[in-house]
Amino acid sequence: MLWNFLKISIRHLRQKKVFSFINIFGLTAGLASCILIGLYVADELSFDRFHPNAGRIVRVTMDFQKGSSSTPNQFASTGTKVGPQFKRLFPAIESYVRTDQFPTIVSMGTQRFSEEKFLYADPSFFSIFSFPLLQGDPASLANKSNIVITASAAIKYFGTKDVLGKTLRVNDAKDYRISAVAQDPPGNSQLHFDFVVSFKNLSADQTEIWWTANYITYFLLTRPDQAAPLEKQIAAYMRTPDVRKEAGLGGSDYLTYHLEPLTSVHLHSPLSGFEPNGNIIYVYVLILIALLILVIACFNYTNLAIAQSASRTGEIGIRKVLGAGKGQLFTQFTSESVLVTILALGLAIFISIALLPVFNSMTGKHLVSANILRPTVLLAIVVTGFGIGLLAGSYPALVLANTRLIQILRSGFRVTGGNAGLRKTLIVAQFVISLFLIVMTIVILQQMNYIRNKDLGLDRDHVLVVPISYTIHNRYDALKTGFRTIPGVQNISGSYNLPIAATWGDGLDAMTEHGPVNFSITAIPADLDYLTTMNMKLIAGSDFTVADLPANTGTDSTRPVERFILNETAIKKLGWTPEQAIGKIVSRGEKGIIKGVVRDFNFASMHDPIGPLMLFADTSFVQHMLVRVSGTNLPATLTQMEATWKQFIPGQAFDYHFLDEDYNRMYTAEQRTASVFTLFSGLAIFLALLGLFGLAAISTIQRTKEIGIRKVMGASLWDISLLVSSNFIVLVAVSILIAAPMAWLASSKWLETFAYRVAVQYWIFGAAALAVIALAFATVSFHAIRAGRMNPVKSLKTE
């Protein structure tokens, strides 16, 4: 019996090649989308869950407000006191680890590299986190002279993983003995490192302070359920008079700490650590897109299966006459659906593996075919596929199996028959999904275009960023002098933070005409020519000069040491106009004079509004040299810069990147979302049109005689196209009315996450609607024109 069902199913698929292709292609696309997006979602949800202690690890974040005009501030970093002090006070904390990471020069013999993933951590690092060691002792970090390196770093420097006892020189100042080799951290970790040394090597380890929040701190709790009670205990402790006095808090100031479960940081925290966070919203969006595409594919199958029923009236009638029951007919038609799904499933797995490199480039993942071919994943895919096959085929099977024999022998099934309500509903649902995705894609692309082209208040184009470590600070001025002689170099400066991602937090105090004012402010320690290099606009006062550097300002004991340039927002919070502010004295711990006012510029993501900012002249903090180049004959300029670099800093590679690359990385999640939306919305509308193509073909076939009569009566091809397409166009119009408010609401909500954004423009809905109507009309008219061109004599002989 099953073999008979299989043979008939295969025969039917071969006879109806076009409709079989539409069904198989649609389900293949839907299943492949689900497989790829499922792998992405599984990877995102698995972040940091590989640690056995993951349920007991929390990240400590800092929340404070200091100053009468200040706003609340939240940071993923803390001061050095949080870990040891809270461990002493609260039994719920089993252990703590403080971490810090910044570029460091590592050398072995003649090999010398600037390493980005150089981590400082307390000795408890490898006991709290489960990064497997291939060799060595996890407790070896207790020794300040030991270093733990990853397997890839060992191969990079020594060509082998067997490196215990060998030495590496760090910052041209100290030799470290390799005490352990760790397995490279997996991609789904928020902590990535190539080298780890003891936190004791930092001068900050010598003191415990609440402020100077540069360190990311983690707690290992004794039980997973203690995070919430512990956070309340910490908040109460931070409100005690002694702590407030120690932290310098007064009035409405506050300082407290929150605990974020390690497994929720990547997707749920707004505060990034050493690695950019993901976003749970985008995960939900991808899941929704996969399901919507799969729904469209299933709707196509259901619609076409019902619509094709007219061609199977003879088969069904004969089977019923010969005694076939409803169960046998149901099994027959369901088996056809399952067969189609099996074919689509095999193709989907093959296509998913083939498309993994493209998908990885879109999403930034490193997924491999082994992720798909794991037994548990394959089993889940197969079970899902069979479930989809049964669901997509069960309704058409029930309709066909339950039809009365007398009805079949009289008229069969027609597209315009009793199931029209369901088919119309499915068509509307398909185009609602497609239009929703199209509008969202256009809005996202508009916002990304706005971000790329918005006037930031600075010019990020043609600016090279050259990392400057503390070990080469003594050659920094000489290097600048050498670069200035290169023809393609226009300006040079430097800063601690990049101008588009400033993170230095400070406090500003001033005595104004309205009384004392103090608030939190973002600060950028900068070199001379900073404003001219970044093409920032000075709206009052003057730029820094050599006399404003700390080494020169201290000669006059009657004047404050520091010189400041504030942005417009900071001046407004002080209650002054830019002109009034020049020469006024303010303090960030050390008193200084406001020398200039710079026009507001975006020094953080566009998700956040521009806040108060201060520039102060100090080259001792420079970590990034900023070099503006002309852009003409750039290769020659870079070659000369590299030669100059090697002249002053031999043995160390010339590393650089462009500032606009850093800017684009700030919006990696949004860019990837735009790419995914563009791809899958295009796929959704294609599948919807493919289904419409099939339905229009069947509808045209069943109306062949009518079309022939109308042609004999003088109807034109245009009249025939309108006749066949009118019903479908009405359904598309209904879908537009449903999809428009849904897309407007969703796009508006998404745009609200940006402080600076485009408006949702009404023309988007009109353009999307016209495009879909035009495509639908062209799709349906293709069949109408073919039928209209037939010889009327032949048309009148059909049916």
Amino-to-carboxy terminus distance: 33 Å
**Percent of residues in beta strands?**
15-25%
Mean pLDDT: 81
The structural class is alpha+beta
Low-confidence stretches: 412-418
What does the radius of gyration come to?
A: 34 Å
What would you say this structure looks like, in words?
- It is a single chain.
- The protein is α+β, with helices and mostly antiparallel strands and 799 residues long.
- 50% of the residues lie in helices and 18% in strands.
- The chain contains 27 helices and 24 strands.
- The strands form 3 sheets. Strands 1, 2, 3, 4, 5, 6, 7, 8, 9, 10, 11, 12 and 13 form a 13-stranded mixed sheet that branches.
- β16 and β17 (515-526) form a beta hairpin.
Task: Give the key terms.
single chain; 799 residues; alpha+beta; six-stranded mixed beta barrel; 27 helices
Question: Gist?
Answer:
The chain has 799 residues and is α+β, with helices and mostly antiparallel strands.
Which secondary structure elements does this structure contain, and how are they paired or packed?
Blueprint: H1 2-15, H2 17-45, E1 57-65, E2 73-75, H3 82-89, E3 93-101, E4 104-108, E5 111-115, E6 118-121, H4 125-128, E7 133-136, E8 146-150, H5 151-158, E9 167-170, E10 174-182, E11 195-198, E12 216-221, H6 227-238, H7 241-246, E13 254-261, H8 262-268, H9 280-307, H10 313-321, H11 326-363, H12 369-373, H13 375-401, H14 405-411, H15 420-453, E14 463-467, H16 476-484, E15 489-495, E16 504-512, E17 515-526, H17 530-533, E18 538-541, H18 550-553, E19 562-567, H19 568-574, H20 578-581, E20 585-587, E21 591-598, E22 613-617, E23 624-629, H21 634-648, E24 657-658, H22 659-665, H23 668-702, H24 704-712, H25 717-751, H26 762-788, H27 792-796
Parallel strand pairs: 6-11, 8-10, 17-22, 19-21
Antiparallel strand pairs: 1-2, 1-12, 1-13, 3-6, 3-12, 4-5, 4-9, 7-10, 8-11, 9-10, 14-23, 14-24, 15-23, 16-17, 16-20, 18-21, 19-22, 20-21
